[in-house]
């Protein structure tokens, strides 16, 4: 294949190829409504079929890791909110877990339960919004996203009343949580959890058996389990291919081993499975939430030995990871005994899940690339960091 | 135009309106129409974009203010909401989108990052405010601003549009020949974007200018 030299700034150009005739190279993004932010794909098309896809990153590179090395451990906590800005509570937990490993801090039992409650609420929030955005990408503009955001607002009300902020919660601390959730808050969370199954039933009645949705997503963007494992794909993307890998079971961090829940796995690894996995995971999240809210013990939410000011963990390194809604979110920290980390590295799930985008898109039409990208569930704040 | 306007007070106008006579000027009618139908560009940059979407959803319902029509194409949009961190890689695209929008057009800088770089200001790759390159009409502080704050900003913008003259020295830039509408699109230079700012809309305050460069 002989490609003509790149024409600077051109968004569409013809690529000559002796076998296929004229191929067309289209630049989708960074301003494109379906790229979920400022992501860019350079797609080579044969007719409408994708023969090559080149992702271009870095339009939202905000120097997260460099800033993390230049601020104190605690001052990085608000920055982790802005990594994956839909799931600030999960990011906080993963970072707190890494620092707790580094500094050898214990977490009170009540705080562990509160963390599980907040992480599972975040999972509900993320998966609901993802399903809404995916339908938007399929061309179903409005209704499913409206439903999803209606539920999102209810969860955000809980986050706001607990942490003071809707999206950027900055709630977890090294050795516990910032404030103790009061009884009224827990009652509100219980009401939300009790009503969530009814919402999911309504949502599924609208979507799951929908013929148009099945026609658009079944068999589209199939991902091979072996490729998924070798590429380091994690989270719902990996489980949709049939690999039952869930850090809540594998690592058993926090108090997850005490809860009874199943790990749903897919059979085909296509876009429909990736949608369905998220719906099923939400149902399991509701089960975990019910158990955690029922079994929430009393006691403090902060380790009394933990100190926030002048925090200097001893020299060493630690990697803390949790099963975030998008996959394995991890923080790798090296300490040299100073107030700042010597090295601060994020393992971003959506960036690694995005690396197999071309493999999933090849042979599909350009309209399918939009929904395949939607089903990967990316947030550019985390991809570019 | 205000010099030649007939001397009729607001009370007299209200009295006439009660009798079913609507007295207005072309300017008021024009501004009334366009201020209540501001179509934003469907363009999200970072975290604030999620709150922008939330503002267009059922609970906050931006449609009450006539701005629910998010256009994917800059050619059809009146309002650029810069919703998030503008990096140096993204800044040329933002300016290009701004240039592609037809006049009259307005810009809202939503959130701390779009205003000044926000929490990421220390970063090597983050623009310290989009107002260095394009003219910003409304600034909405917050990280991210709540959807209500975006709606408040939109109402402020509507008030601004309603008060605009269409002739005379206060006329908007697209009706005047002495102002350049297009903003120069910056490019990657050796150390920074070239040019580092658009002097027509932003000049560094004296405290930021190094004495040896002044």
Question: If you had to describe this structure to a student in words, what would you say it looks like?
Answer:
The complex is a heterodimer of chains A (385) and B (214). Chain A is α+β, with helices and mostly antiparallel strands and 385 residues long. Chain A contains 15 helices and nine strands. Chain A has helices spanning 64-70, 77-81, 88-103, 109-137, 143-163, 183-207, 211-217, 225-230, 236-240, 247-250, 271-294, 349-354, 357-361, 366-376, 380-383; strands at 12-17, 21-28, 40-46, 49-56, 172-173, 176-177, 316-324, 327-335, 343-347. Chain B is of the alpha/beta class and 214 residues long. Chain B has a single domain, classed as Rossmann fold. Chain B has helices spanning 10-18, 26-35, 47-55, 91-100, 111-116, 147-162; strands at residues 79-83, 106-110, 138-140, 187-188, 193-194. In chain B, strands 1-2-3 form a three-stranded parallel beta sheet. In chain B, strands 4-5 form a two-stranded antiparallel sheet. The mean pLDDT of chain B is 85. The A-B interface holds A 30-33, 37-38, 58-63, 66-67, 70, 78-79, 82, 85-86, 145-146, 149-150, 152-153, 166-168, 380-381 and B 42-47, 49-51, 53-54, 57-59, 72, 84-85, 87, 89-90, 93, 97, 119-120, 122-126, 143-144, 146.
Which percent bin holds the helix content of chain B? 25-40%
Oligomeric state of this protein: heterodimer
- How far apart the termini of chain A lie comes to 35 Å
Largest interface: A-B, 31 and 32 residues
**Count of alpha and pi helical runs of chain A:** 15
- Number of DSSP strands of chain B? 5
The percent range for strand residues of chain A is: 5-15%
User: How many structural domains does the protein architecture of chain B include?
Assistant: 1
CATH class of chain B: Alpha Beta
Derived from helix and strand composition plus strand pairing, the structural class of chain A reads: alpha+beta
In percent, how much strand structure appears in the residues of chain B? 5-15%
Task: Tell me, rounded to a whole number, the average pLDDT of chain B.
Answer: 85
Alpha-carbon Rg of chain B, integer: 20 Å
Give the strand tally of chain A: 9
What is the N-to-C order of secondary-structure elements of chain A (H for helix, E for strand)? EEEEHHHHHEEHHHHHHEEEHHHH
Distance between the termini of chain B: 42 Å
The second-level CATH architecture of chain B is 3-Layer(aba) Sandwich
| Principal-axis shape of chain A | globular
Mean pLDDT over the full residue set of chain A: 87
Order of helices and strands of chain B: HHHEHEHEHEE
Strand order, largest beta sheet of chain B? 1-2-3
């Amino acid at each position: 294949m002989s490609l003509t030299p790149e024409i600077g700034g051109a968004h569409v150009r013809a690529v000559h190829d002796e076998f296929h005739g004229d191929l067309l190279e289209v630049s989708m993004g960074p301003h494109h409504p379906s790229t979920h932010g400022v992501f860019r794909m350079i797609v080579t098309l044969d007719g409408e079929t994708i023969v090559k896809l080149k992702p271009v990153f870095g339009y939202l590179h905000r120097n997260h890791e460099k800033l993390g090395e230049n601020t104190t451990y605690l001052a990085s906590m608000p920055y982790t909110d802005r990594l994956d800005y839909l799931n600030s509570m999960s990011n906080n937990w993963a970072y707190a877990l890494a620092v707790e490993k580094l500094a050898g801090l214990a977490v009170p039992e009540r705080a562990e339960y509160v963390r599980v409650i907040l992480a599972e609420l975040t999972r509900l929030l993320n998966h609901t919004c993802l399903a809404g955005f995916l339908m938007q990408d399929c061309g179903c503009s409005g209704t499913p996203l409206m439903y999803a955001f209606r539920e999102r607002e209810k969860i955000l009300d809980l986050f706001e009343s607990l942490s003071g902020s809707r999206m950027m919660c900055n709630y977890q601390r090294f050795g516990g949580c910032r404030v103790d959730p009061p009884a009224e808050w827990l009652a509100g969370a219980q009401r939300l959890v009790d009503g969530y199954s009814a919402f999911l039933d309504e949502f599924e009645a609208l979507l799951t058996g929908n013929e148009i949705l099945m026609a658009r997503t079944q068999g589209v963007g199939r991902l091979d389990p072996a490729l998924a494992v070798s590429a380091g794909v994690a989270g719902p993307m990996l489980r949709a291919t049939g690999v039952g890998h869930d850090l809540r079971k594998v690592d058993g961090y926090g108090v997850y081993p005490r809860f009874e829940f199943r790990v749903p796995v897919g059979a085909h690894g296509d876009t429909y499975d990736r949608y369905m996995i998220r719906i099923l995971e939400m149902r399991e999240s509701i089960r975990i939430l019910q158990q955690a809210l029922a079994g929430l013990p009393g006691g403090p939410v902060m380790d009394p030995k933990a100190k926030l000011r002048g925090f200097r963990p001893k020299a060493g390194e630690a990697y803390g990871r949790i099963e975030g809604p998008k996959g394995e979110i991890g923080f790798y920290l090296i300490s040299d005994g100073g107030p700042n980390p010597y090295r601060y590295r994020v393992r971003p799930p959506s960036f690694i899940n995005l690396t197999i985008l071309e493999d999933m898109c090849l042979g599909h039409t350009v309209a399918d690339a939009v929904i395949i990208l939607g089903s990967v569930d990316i947030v550019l704040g985390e991809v570019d960091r | 135009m205000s010099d030649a306007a007939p001397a009729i007070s607001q009370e007299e106008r209200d009295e006439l309106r009660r009798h079913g006579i609507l007295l207005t000027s072309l300017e008021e009618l024009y501004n009334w129409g366009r201020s209540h139908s501001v179509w934003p560009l469907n363009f999200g940059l970072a975290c604030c974009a999620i709150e922008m979407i939330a503002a267009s959803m059922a609970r906050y319902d931006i449609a009450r203010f006539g701005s629910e029509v998010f256009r994917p194409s800059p050619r059809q949009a009146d309002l650029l909401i810069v919703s998030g961190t503008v990096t140096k890689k993204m800044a040329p695209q933002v300016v290009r989108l701004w240039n592609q929008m037809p006049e009259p057009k307005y810009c809202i800088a939503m959130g701390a990052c779009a205003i000044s770089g926000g929490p990421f200001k220390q970063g090597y790759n983050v623009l310290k405010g989009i107002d260095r390159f394009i003219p910003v009409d409304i600034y909405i502080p917050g990280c991210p601003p709540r959807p209500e704050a975006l709606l408040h900003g939109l109402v402020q913008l509507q008030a601004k549009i309603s008060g605009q003259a269409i002739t005379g020295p206060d006329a908007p830039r697209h009706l005047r020949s002495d102002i350049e509408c297009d903003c120069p699109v910056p490019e990657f230079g050796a150390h920074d974007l070239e040019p580092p700012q658009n002097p027509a809309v932003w000049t560094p305050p004296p405290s930021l200018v190094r004495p040896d460069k002044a």
